[in-house]
Here is the input.
Amino acid sequence: MRRDRTSALLVLAACAALGLPTPARAHAVLVDSSPRDGAVLDAAPAEATLRFNSRIEKRLTRASLEDTAGHAVPVARIDRGGEPPEQLTFRLPALAAGTYRLTFRVLAVDGHATPGLLRFTVRPAGKP
Ligand SMILES: [Cu+2]
Here is the structure.
């Protein structure tokens, strides 16, 4: 985990040092998600979907979910087949009311890592 983060930073540092322009075609940038970052939901989502601007190495994706207290909540990537190569879907367990943080790190096909964070809140039932 720590080694992955270090190598991602090294790649970014190497790019910066070489003054390479950002290869927008290959670099993975989050363009849409469900839930959206900052969403406040009436019902707990059963899945989380991330969509990027370019295809990603799905098997090398890392993601973790934390509840309000910072406890890890298990998430599993699912692929029903036929999912676009730039999209990732995670199955979520039954979530209680609270605020959640989905932290992810994806690898674009150009080898560059993109870290990201998505926050969403599940409202207590019956409270507007
Ligand atoms: Cu890149």
Q: What stands out?
A: The two ends are 40 Å apart (CA to CA). The pocket of copper (II) ion is lined by residues 23, 26-27, 108, 110, 112 (CB under 6 Å).
